[in-house]
User: What shape does this take?
Amino acid sequence: MDRILFGDNQFFGVNHASDEKSRAQAIRFKDDSSIIRTLGYAQEAGINTFMCTTHDRISGICDYIRGNPDKYQGFKIYPCMPYAHKYANAVTELGIVGTLKEYVPGNFFGSIFKGGVAFVSKDYLSMMELLIDAEMKMFKGISTPVIFLQNVVTDLLLGLGMKEVLKSFYDYVAKKYNAEAGFITMNLPKLLSVLNSVGIENPIVCASINSAGFRMSGGKELYEQTLKQGKARVIAMQVLSGGAVSAKEAIEYVCNLPNIESILFGASSRGNINETASLIRQFDRTTELSESK
Amino acid sequence: MAFGFNNVKIEEATTMIKVGLIGAGKMGISHLSILGAHPDVEIVGVSDTSKLVLDVLKKYSGFKVFSDYSKMLDEVKPEAVVVAVPTKFHTIINKTLLSKGIHVFSEKPLALKAEEGEELVRLAKEKGLVTQVGYHNKFIGTFMEAKRLINGGHIGDIFHFTGESYGPVVVKNKQNNWRADPEEGGGCLMDYAAHVIDLINYVIGPIERVSGAKLESYYSRNVEDGVYSLLELASGVGGVLSVNWSDETYRKMSTSVTALGSKGKIICDATEIKVYFKSSDVPGGYTKGWTIKHINDFAVPVDFYLRGEEYSAQIDYFIKSIQKVVPNDINTFETAWQTDRVISLIKNCAKK
Assistant: This one.
C-alpha cells in the first residue's frame, strides 16, 4: 500500500467534528466535476490511491476514471463497503428481511423463502457474496487491490462474535476479486485478536489513530501497545482529530508510531491536501533519519 | 472504563450480569453487539419474531434464541433485559419484566400512551429495579456540556430556547412498516420529536405546557412527518420545537438545541457546541464572544465503539447501575414518562 491514501468523507458531507461543515461540504461537492478536480489535486500531491465508500455517486467518478485512462495510470481505488446509511435507512423503512429482499439481487431471496424456512448456513454467506458483488459492480475495470469492510459492519460483527462472517468476507474478496480484504474498525485491539483467532495473519486494518485518543476504543495506550506488536498492516485515519493539537503536531504523532503502513486523510482544498501530504513526508524523513543514526 | 457521570467515584466492577434481548431489529442488534463486547455482560438469550434473524444469531453468534420471549425469561432467567420492540409492545413487555424482578433497558418512547407509564414507574420503584430508556443524546459530550453551562447559570436567565431535529426517514410516498402506523407508535412525534423533547427536559428544563402544536404529513398517509410546537417550561420560559423526518438534505438524524440567556447563548448539536458570552465573566475554557468546541473535546471514552460513543455509554451506564457503581439517575422510566406526557400534550393541542 502507498504511504498516503486519499479519503472521501469530505465529498459526501461526512465530518465527524461538525454537522455544519458537513453540510457546507455537501454543497461544495454537489457536482462530480468538483470531486474529480479535488482528486486531481491529490494526484498532483503524489497521492495515487483513493479510498472511498460505495456511495452511489462514486459510480459517476468511476465512469470518469474508466473514460480517461491516461489521466489515471497507476491510480487505485480501495472500495469501502457498504455505504451503511443506504441500508440503515432501508432497515428503518423495510425491516431487516425487507431490506435483504430489496438489495440481494435476483430471485435468490424469493427462492429460499418458498417452502418455509429451510435455511442452511451456506445461504447466508452466499447472500453476503451477492451483496459484495452488487457493491463492486461500479468498480469494474478499475484496479481495486484492497477491498474494505466499513467499520459499522466490521464492529457490529465483532460485537456479535461473528468471526466466521469476517473470515468469509476475507476469503471471498481474495477468491473473486483477487484483492486483499481490509477492515475498518474503531476497535483495533479487539479486532486484531479476533481476526488472528480465525487464522487471518497480518491483516490490513484501518483505524482512528490520533494524539487525542479520539475514537480509539480501549484507550490510546492500548493502541500504542498493539501497534508495537506489529501484527497488522495498519492504516491510520482521523489523524487530525486532535482537538486542540495543530496539524503539525497531530501528524508528527502518527509518523512517530511504529508499524503504521499508511495514513488516510481527506481534504477539500488544494492547500490543505498539499500541506498534509508534505507534513507526512517531512516527518517520515525525520523519523528515518533518527532511526538510521 | 472510567465514567464520571455526576461525579460519582467509580470503582472497578466485576459482577457479571446475565442479560437477555427482546427484539433484534435495527436497534436491538446494535444493542446486542455492544452488549456482546461488554466485559461484564453475559448474553443469555435473544428473542425475536423473525426466524431468519434468530437463525443467523444462533448460527454465527452462538446465542440461545427464542421466538417467544416468555419462554426465554423462564428458561435462561436473565437479571436484566434490553427491550427493542415496536412501541406498542413496550408496556406489556416492560410490565412483565418488572413483575418478574428483572432490570429493564427499554427503547424509546416509554409507552404508546402517557397513562401507561405511571404504573411502570411505580412498579419499578416498588421492586427497587434499575430502569433506563434509550434516549442516547444524554450521553453525548456536547449536550452534557450544554447542560452543565445552563444548570450552572453561566448563560444567565434563559429567555428562549429552540429544539430541532431533521433527517431523511420518510422522503417518498412509500412506507409499510410499524413506523407508519400510529397504533404501533409510528410517526415523527414518537420517533424523532421524542428525542428532542427529552433533551429539552434534561438540558434546559422540564416542559410543563404546550401552547400550540401542528402535526403535518407530507408523504405518510397515517402519521405525521413534521412536528411544530410552542412549549413552556415550569419556570415560564418559552421555546419552539421544530422536527421533521422528511428532510433529505440531512444525511442522518441531526438534533440541536439553542438557548438564549441574559449572559449569552448556546447552540449545540451532537458534534459541536457554540457558546457566546456577553462579558468576560466566563467559565474555564471559554472567552468573551464566541467559543466553538467539538465533540473531540468531550467524547466519553468507551471500551467498544459501534455507532457513536453514546450508544456504548448508555448500555455501560445501565450495566453499572445494576452493579450499583453509578446511581441510575439518567434516562429512568420516570424521566421518560415525563417525555411521554409532553408528547401527549402536543397531540392533544394539535387536535384542538
